[in-house]
Structures are given as structure tokens and as C-alpha cells.
Amino acid sequence: KIAESWRLYISIHASHYAIFESKIISLPTLPQVPNVQISRGKLANSGNTAFISERRSLNEVVAAKPAKWADFPSDWFTSALVNSRSVEIVLNAASLITAINPPVEAFAVSSPKNRILDNMVTLYLAGLRPSTGSQSRRRKTPLEVARNIQRDLEVHSGPLILVPRASRVMMGIHVIESTLIQISTNFLVITPKNSDDLWILSSWLLSIFGQLQLEWVGINQEGMRKIEMTQLKLVKVPTSVEFNQSELNELERLTRASTALDTNNLAIRDIDELWYDKLFSNGNNPPLTDYLHLMQSLCEERRLGNA
Fold this sequence. Notes:
Distance between the termini: 17 Å
Strand order of the largest sheet: 1-12-7-10-4
Shape: elongated
Largest sheet: 5 strands, mixed
Number of helices: 11
């Protein structure tokens, strides 16, 4: 009986989601949007996080370099985002951490800049505690670490929209306007073609209508919502909807003023009302509260389904 009740529970959600899906069926998916690129962050994909990143802002690092980077020139650093710890949507350099960004010459063996990199990596590795036990692994050589850094080095330039790959309670996105930044594998990266698309896409993904889609297509991994490239590419986006300048300004204002969606305390936000009025207020449409209830049910289903 429990299994039958659970199947009915899921079936009801599926039928409710189908109603929502019918409202957005004509919208393009992210890959269909002209000049929008989707990728995955690369920073620390090969490990070495403790060496290549520092939990201080770029200005703080340049003003007082940590010992592990003592010999690095000040132009060997960029801002970085490793984890989604902030509920803020629009991130600036002061709220980001720092990662190393050695120039191409630093990876040319025996070059002067390579000797600087090799020396710092060697000193760093020498200070690591040896691993013990059955899970101990061979320590990387300085050359291997340097190759890892080079392989994972990718500097992005805003505007960018960052979608966390793993979320449990707080559901949101991050916006980078113009900062040069390295992004870890914890994020998927959407690169819009211009500022208008930045605010249209980011506000939509942040709204209940974007988050509903991500919740529906996401993978349930031990009660956590996982989003990979395959899932993100299924999301419908309203770039075919026209906005005047006043509406675009309002989208930007509301996105800046918003925080991540707290699925333990769901409430209608201004950004949800704007999108509802723009797309769903005409005709026979469910009230906005129905979409909120559906989101709450899907989140509960994810958590209970793992119990």
C-alpha cells in the first residue's frame, strides 16, 4: 500500500507539472538560444585546491600574499568561485576568493617563470603531511601538479550566469557582470551574448519557473538536487519574449535584490510575480501559489524519496 501511495503521489505531481510544461512548450531550450554558450567550470578538476585557491579576495591577496604564493608576481592571480556558500545572486570581486593564473610562459619547462612556479609547488608539496592507511596515494610531483594547473586553467569574462551543480535547500544562481574569474567544477557556466540576455536568463532561472524546471529535470542524489549539462540543456527559457527597456530595468533590479529560493520557507517573490504577469496572467492559468505548492511538493518528494 505504501508503494501504491507513493506511485500515486508521484503521478499527481507529474500531472501538475505537465500543466506547467504546457505553458512553456513553445519556448526555446538553452542550446537553441543564439550566441549563448554552456560549459562546466574547470578550476581544481584535477585536485590541488589548497594550493591553487585562497579564501581571500583578490585585493587582499595582492596586498598580502600567502606564503604558498610568496614568489608569484601580483598579475598571476584572478578572482575565483569554488563553492556556492553565498545566498547573494550578483557577486562582485569583494565576495569572491582568489586563484592563481600563471601565464603561458610559466608552463614552459626551464623558463624563468616556470622556475618560479616549480619552486612554489615544490615548497608546497614538501609541507604536506604524508597520507597514511589503506587509502594513501602516491604524492604528485611538481611537474604533475603544474600540468594539472595548466589543464584546469580557464579564465572567464562576464557577463556570466553560474548554476550550482548540487543544491539541497537553497536554490539559486549567481551572476558575474564583468569580473575576470575562474570557476570550479561545482558550477555550470552560461555565457549570454549581452547584458539584456544576462538579466532575462538569470531572472528566469532564479524565478519559481526556472527553479521548477531544474527541480523536475534534476537528479536525486541522496536527497540532493544534481544538475549536469544534460539536465541544464532541457530547460526552457523565454528569450523569445519581448521586453521594453523599462521591463529590462525592472528585471535587473529584481535580480539584484533577490536571494536564493529557500525551499524550507517558500514564499512568492517580486521576481516570480513579474514573470507570472508577463507570461501566465492571461487566459485560464493556475494561480501563482499553485506553482509554489508544486515546487514544495517536488522538493519534499526528492527528500522523502531518499529516506
